[in-house]
Amino acid sequence: MWKSFKDKVFIARQLSLSEWLLLAEAWWVLFGFFLALRRVSLERLKKMFRLIGGKKVDPSGVLVFAHRLQKLVSLASRLHLLSITCLIRACTLHWMLGRRGIPSRLCIGVNKSLVGIHAHAWVEIMGQAIGESEDIDERFKVLKPIQFFNTFAN
Question: pLDDT digit string (tens) for 98-145?
């Protein structure tokens, strides 16, 4: 336990003020999606969070920011009191990116094996899975991608 606490203190000292703010936002958005996904369907949630239009974003640096934000969302999920699933993390990342005008897709994939059916959720930007291995498309068959936001990059 002490090693875990020391690791958390070390990580906390590495974060800038803006990263702390993103971490706090991610923690609350994770909590919101944890509750929302238990009360409403994903389609209804999509309608509730739809943005009208979108900001124009500079594509340079978008992937770097998205990867950093994904790490902060992952850290917030590990620090959470609740059991956070990949779907909640992916919804949170997708929502936080969309809020900043960065177009992304929420992907839900399934994999049928001898053991059973496995599902996983992740976020893609410009066809690249954020925070996932490169073979994610080979391991999971993607169901219909979901976009909560109408964001436009051009």
Answer: 888 888 888 999 988 888 889 999 999 988 999 998 888 888 888 876
User: How crowded is residue 96: how many other Cβ atoms within 10 Å of its Cβ?
Assistant: 21
Q: What Rg do the C-alpha atoms of the chain give, in angstroms?
A: 16
Say which amino acid occupies 82. L
Write down the H helix ranges in the chain: 2-14, 17-39, 42-48, 62-79, 86-99, 136-139
Distance CA 34, CA 85 (A): 9
Residue whose tokens read 């049928």: 112
Q: Are 68 and 61 in contact (CB under 8 A)?
A: no
Tokens of 134: 């490169």
Backbone angles phi, psi at 7, to 5 degrees: -65, -40
Give the side-chain half-sphere CA count within 13 A for 107. 21
